Amino acid sequence: MTTVTPKSSSNPVPASADPLQLIDVDHVRFYVGNAKQAAYFYAHTFGFQISQIADLTTGSRDEADYLLTQGNIRIMLTTPLNKEHPAADEILRYGDGVKDVAFTVADATKAYEQAIKNGGVSAIEPREITDDRGSVTVAAIKTYGRCIHSFVSRTGDYVLPNVKKGGEFMPVFKKMDSPVNEYNAKHPCGLKFVDHLVGNVEEGKMNHWVKWYEDVMGFAMFKHFDDADISTEYSALMSKVMASGNHLIKMPINEPAEGKKKSQIQEYLEWHDMTPGVQHLALRTDDELSSVAELRRRGVDFLNLPDSYYDIVWDRVNKVLTENGHEAVREDHDRIKDLGILVDADDEGYLLQLFTKPLQDRPTLFFEIISRRGSQSFGKGNFKALFEALELEQERRGNL
Ligand code: FE2
Question: pLDDT tens for residues 151-199?
Fold first, then answer.
């Protein structure tokens, strides 16, 4: 028997503990037009397990949810089953995309109350979903545009370590058995966790949201790029990176900047009902080459780079690494070029990264596949090369 009740804070959390201390990225929820089909797309192309579902057959009457897992990544695909569900209107306006970046905390009600006290706006009042095996408490606040942050706390069988081992996500979920899961277990893509998650906000609003993450969530600025760093002749953006106190998650925030032609941030906003939202999720791997090779084999559509990129990349990157006393890029340079992977370096080391094309027909959400060898930045040196490649794509779509 599952019950859902409003919740006031009661869990025993030490008085000294910060209620907004984030334990993990509990899950990232996408609203999609057809979760059953989207689940197969993400499973087949990116190697996710379709782990659990909640739908009509499990007693979920107004939405269907598919939990996709890989490493410590949990993506929840949610589709509305009727027009009254709030996701129905959002899908009409924005297409498929990210609705919720949910964090595991010790006590969701206390985290929510603290965030509200800090100036946050409520999206979902605390509610507890219980059955005889445990409970999951969820509450949420609004962040930029159509997105929310849920706080999730778990007890009994539903604690996160159990979920990571394959235990049920919360009441009304059931485990899935699919041939695609067996295949993916034999052919891993190696994606481990959400490295960072980037939001696009309107022009002039970046600093507003930087302050919001400081004030409401207790985040701090991590790195800062200005538009001189990230611009081509035609388009530009400004970006500041916010990090949670324990650096569990980094959330760069972009706003469009003045350029001769339309920036990719502006293009995103125009295809997202002029509403801010999540632009990309960067998924971390320990082995960029193996991951990208497997993802390409599965048909993932990655951004194409100009050939000229590899004419200059090794001088650019290895110069920075030598100057800072780091080893040169150890992965096979020819294979990096064959796989079309981007490379960047800073004073802490280097990183390998590659961006997919949009994951749906609208040019909105995409993934990044990233691995780090010391570098904690986001590929600043690649932004110019990336923008030139992106503009080629925008030109093809008639959106430049
Ligand atoms: Fe990124």
Answer: 999 999 999 999 999 999 999 999 998 999 999 999 999 999 999 999 9
Neighbours of 348 (CB within 10 A): 14
Domain end position, chosen among 127, 161, 185: 185
CATH number for the domain spanning 161: value is 3.10.180.10
CA of 378 to the centre of ligand 1 (A): 6
Backbone angles phi, psi at 178, to 5 degrees: -145, 140
Distance (angstroms) between ligand 1 centre and the Cα of 366 equals 10
State how many domains the chain has.
2
**pTM (global) more than 0.70:** yes
CA of 368 from ligand 1 middle (Å) equals: 6
Distances (CA, A) of 233 to 156, 259, 263, 360: 56, 7, 11, 28
Please check whether residues 251 and 136 belong to one and the same domain.
no
Q: Which of 304, 345, 303, 353 is nearest to 328 (CA)?
A: 345
List the structure tokens of 119.
């100036």
Spatial distance between the Cα atoms of 315 and 351, rounded to a whole number of angstroms? 15
Question: Domain range for residue 308?
Answer: 191-397
| DSSP per position, 81-137 | SSTTSHHHHHHHHH-SEEEEEEEE-S-HHHHHHHHHHTT-EEEEEEEEEEETTEEEE
The 24-31 sheet, strands edge to edge: 3-6, 121-131, 134-142, 148-156, 97-104, 24-31, 73-80, 63-70, 49-54, 174-175
Supply φ then ψ for residue 252, to 5 degrees: -60, 145
Residue 17 lies in a domain: no
Q: Is residue 2 part of a domain?
A: no
Q: Is the pLDDT of residue 386 over 90?
A: no
pLDDT band at 281 (very low <50, low <70, confident <90, very high): very high
Cα 198 to averaged position of ligand 1 atoms, centre (Å): 7
CB atoms within 5 A of ion ligand 1 belong to 282, 368
Q: How far is the CA of 322 from the centre of ligand 1 (A)?
A: 25
Distance 79 CA to ligand 1 centre (A): 27
Strand stretches in 261-311, DSSP E: 277-285
Based on the domain organization, do 153 and 195 belong to the same domain?
no
Query: Is the same domain home to 236 and 383?
Result: yes
Contact of 216 with 115, CB cutoff 8 Å: yes
The whole-chain average pLDDT of the chain stands at 91
How many residues in total does the chain contain?
400
Please tell me what DSSP assigns to residue 46.
H
CB crowding 387-397: b at 16 or more within 10 Å, else e? bbbbbebbeee
